[in-house]
Specification:
The protein is mostly helical. It has a single domain, classed as Ribonucleotide Reductase, subunit A. The protein contains 13 helices and no strands. The longest helix has 28 residues, at about 200-230. The termini are far apart. The model has no long low-confidence stretch (mean pLDDT about 95).
Amino acid sequence: MIRRPVAAPPPPETAQPNVFPLDWPEGDPITHQLFKLAKREAWDAEELPWDELRTANLSKEERLGIGYWFSMLGIFDAAAPPVFAHALIEMYKAHEEDGVRKCFSTILRDELNHEEVCRWGTQLTLPGAPVGPLRWTPVTALEKAAHSNIAWGYYNGGRYWNGYVDAHKKYPLEVLFTSFLMGEIAATTLFSEMGRAAKLPLFQQLFKNVSKDESRHARMALYLCQRSFPGMSREQKAFVTKQLRAGFIFLSLILFKPFPGKFWELPAGFSENHALLQDAAAAGGLGILPEGAREAAWRAAMLRVKGTMEKFDIEFPAMPEVGLVGREIAVEDLDGMIPVF
């Protein structure tokens, strides 16, 4: 015999914001398609043929240049996992669409993979196989230049976190992530071309994998932008314009060239040593593109983003470094900008 259930009073109302949505609304199909694609395209950085780099016939300078490039990339990629982890928590608190939450979980996984790539790339090339890009002692003049540049890059990156966390309290996630769209579109093109230019099969496969990841990330960012732009205030749209400018300057250090004094605090000689070490990495077959090709890739990426912005009456910033006109953004207007990469 089944006993009758006992009637219970309703629980108190759950305080919000709360990270437990306890529902899975369908949302836009594109988000679920991207989530499925991410699962199909999943790869493991550790399974790449790293022995090719370990045994490659490279000069000491070429090996140092490659280690330097992965160290500078690591400044971005080591910060990316906590950046997206924090964003994912904010999405759960806001009870974001299920598909969007799932996509951001795969972006977090991708960024962990990219960070792992930087670890392998530095350990197999920098003197003494260090466990961190600054945990080695430079001896030659070129090694000292590389170590100094990495340290300056790390210093600048270390200024980023508190501002990023505070920005989440001031601006909607979609506003913050507009710079993410531009960076991912540029990275898709640049890493794809680096894969074709690379000499070692390791680098060819590595950059092909990363380019696929960035392409998915860009499509997710585009969805967020197109969803949110129609309802943005003029103030928010003006912030987006500045955010795009700051994002370009921020990412240029690794994907284009350094622009000291505009966002990065860099000493005299940094840019010259950066170019010298990148040339060494290119000679070693890493696939670094000539500056003109990097400029063309950025211009193409920006034109794509510019078209999206103009559809929603958002001014695109002037980018004289790649020959694009637009709204002039003063250097002081970049203070407090927190580009997401």
